[in-house]
Write a structure and sequence with these properties.
The complex is a heterodimer of chains A (361) and B (148). Chain A is α+β, with helices and mostly antiparallel strands. In chain A, 40% of the residues lie in helices and 15% in strands. Chain A has a four-stranded antiparallel beta sheet with strand order 3-4-5-6. In chain A, a hairpin with a 4-residue loop joins strand 4 and strand 5 (241-257). In chain A, helix 3 crosses helix 4 and helix 9 crosses helix 10. Chain B has one domain (5-131). Chain B has helices at 5-17, 20-28, 89-101, 107-135, and strands spanning 36-52, 59-74, 79-85. In chain B, helix 2 crosses helix 3 (89-101). The chains are: A alpha+beta (361), B alpha+beta (148). At the A-B interface, strand 1, strand 2, strand 3, helix 8 and strand 4 of A face helix 1, strand 1, strand 2, strand 3 and helix 4 of B. Strand 1 of chain A pairs parallel with strand 2 (59-74) of chain B, so a sheet runs across the interface.
Chain lengths: 361, 148
């Protein structure tokens, strides 16, 4: 129970004032600009866009600055801002086959047409702190080769040609949207993918890891991981045709998973899919693993009771804004609730003491 | 004045994805300031971006992208529309004016002064990234094992 109280205004105003001062930090140190955040902390910005579910690097950078680097607070700010905007329409499904790939690797085929392109990856760094970054200084230009702007075919298409990979079934032109209708069970795959795409990276990562450790094992290989820009095309009703309204960077992960067949499906490889705003490959791989784990029912697999196979558990707990909203509300005044509990405990103790006295007499 | 609808689709796409500051500079260099009436003042909103399960399957909602739109009418009655990426109202205004003027006798000048540079810079940026990507392409070689 909540009771309206008066008397905190001055304390709140002063708390906000102090927050602003702490956010700014030492005034002798130059203030950080949103351009610097967008340009130099771009992976953090990507995460805010992905989980804020709004692609706008400048806005995400601003949210990160306002939130003092608190990712979930920044995601909250972006989500809240989004709700104030009208939606003009929905895009045609993006064609990731046309992606201008900065990075494109396959863990299943060495000689994949289009090549294995590492891109600006941390993978082969030694994870040793480089004190040169503390000093700053100019960065030499990256090496350039021969540009190949031809679209890179999806690895899945090769396996599919042999019929060894399960086909992706089509679906409704207008998929369900959990920002318009409350998330309801059972959730079909498009709804699950939307929830996973905006779900908390840490939560999705841990669930994906749990499947690797045996809780709903799905034997995944990363068939392909690609990062790069794609054009977003939308039909404009007043024009009567579609135009490209935006360029966005996406990370896409397709897993191929060993599948020995079930009562309804032949032995073949099945798929998991991850698609995330920005360069976010840990999230995209995690999403693909959890997507595959959640598909047990449609593939006729036996549920093992693993958390990652439980759509209700996964989808209702993946959203860090919902989670932190409910979690953090318990720090707000619950004086009346607590007062009643206090009286109850006192009464129980008094009753127990009286009984003990009676027993002793 | 007639124009090819496919051409309009192309120029609107270029304007939509142009960097706001760059478009503003290219537009200012034209020295044009045509009078117009708003049909719809610049409005910031979003578009829901969709993907497909497994890249080819059922569509799903991935998340939104910020978009600014507007519409205006030049004094000669030509209507210009803009749907541009981001939250910059002035970028939308310029894009809509250019869209309108591209349907008039000013088209060739604007093509040379705004659209061609935007397209060339876009290609250069794209090619530059592709060249860096190519330098990180893995060239496998096979280690020969055995006695011979």
């Amino acid at each position: 129970m909540y009771v309206a109280t008066k008397g905190g205004e001055r304390a709140i105003d002063n708390a906000h004032g102090w927050l602003a001062e702490e956010r700014r930090g030492d005034p002798a140190v130059p203030e950080i600009s949103t351009d610097q955040i967008a340009g130099q902390l771009s992976i953090a910005v990507n995460r805010v866009m992905a989980e804020g579910s709004l692609y706008d690097p400048d806005l995400a950078a601003l949210a990160l600055k306002q939130a003092r680097g608190d990712m979930i607070e920044a995601i909250f700010l972006v989500r809240a801002y989004r709700t104030t905007l009208p939606r003009f329409g929905a895009s045609l499904p993006v064609d990731t086959g046309t992606m201008e790939c900065d990075r494109r690797i396959s863990a299943t085929f060495k000689d994949v047409p289009g090549g294995q392109v590492l891109g600006p990856t941390f993978d082969y760094t030694h994870r040793l702190i480089d004190f040169a970054h503390a000093a700053g200084g100019p960065v030499p230009e990256a090496a350039a080769g021969t540009p190949d702007t031809a679209p890179k075919p999806h690895v899945a298409a090769f396996l599919n040609r042999e019929g060894l990979l399960q086909d992706e079934p089509g679906g409704e032109d207008t998929p369900p949207d959990l920002t318009r209708e409350p998330l309801a069970m059972p959730a079909d795959r498009p709804l699950r993918l939307q929830a996973l795409a905006r779900g908390d990276e840490g939560f999705i990562l841990s669930l994906a890891y749990s499947t690797q450790r045996g809780y709903g094992k799905t034997h995944p290989f990363v068939g392909e991981l690609r990062i790069g820009a794609v054009a977003v095309e939308m039909e404009i009703p007043e024009l009567g045709f579609a135009i490209e309204i935006a360029d966005i960077v996406l990370t896409e992960c397709e897993t191929v998973n060993q599948f020995t067949g079930s009562r309804t499906e032949p032995a073949q490889f099945t798929r998991g899919y991850g698609l995330v705003f920005g360069q976010s490959e840990r999230k995209a791989i995690s999403m693909a693993l959890v997507d595959r784990a959640l598909r047990w029912q449609e593939l006729g697999e036996t549920a093992t009771g693993a958390p990652a196979q439980d759509a209700e558990f996964v989808l209702y707990h993946a959203d860090n804004i919902q989670a932190s909203g409910f979690l953090e509300h318990i720090k707000l005044p619950h004086y009346v609730d607590f007062q009643s509990e206090l009286e109850l405990v006192r009464k129980l103790r008094a009753g127990a003491a009286a009984e003990a006295r009676e027993a002793a007499e | 004045m007639t124009f090819d609808p496919a051409d309009r689709k192309r120029w609107m796409g270029l304007l939509a994805r142009a960097e706001a500051g760059r478009l503003s500079v290219l537009w200012a260099a034209q020295g044009l300031d045509p009078e117009f009436d708003w049909l719809r003042r610049p409005e910031i909103g979003t578009a829901m971006v969709r993907g497909r399960a497994g890249a080819t399957g059922a569509p799903f909602n991935l998340g939104e992208v910020t978009v600014t739109r507007c519409a205006l009418k030049l004094r000669d009655g030509t209507v210009g529309h803009a749907y541009v990426q981001g939250r910059d109202r002035d970028k939308a205004r310029i894009a809509a004016i250019v869209d309108a003027l591209m349907q008039t006798g000013a088209a060739e000048a604007l093509r040379a002064g705004i659209l061609d540079p935007l397209a060339a810079e876009r290609d250069a940026a794209r090619t530059g990234r592709a060249a860096k990507a190519d330098a990180t392409r893995v060239e496998f070689f096979t280690m020969v094992r055995g006695e011979d």
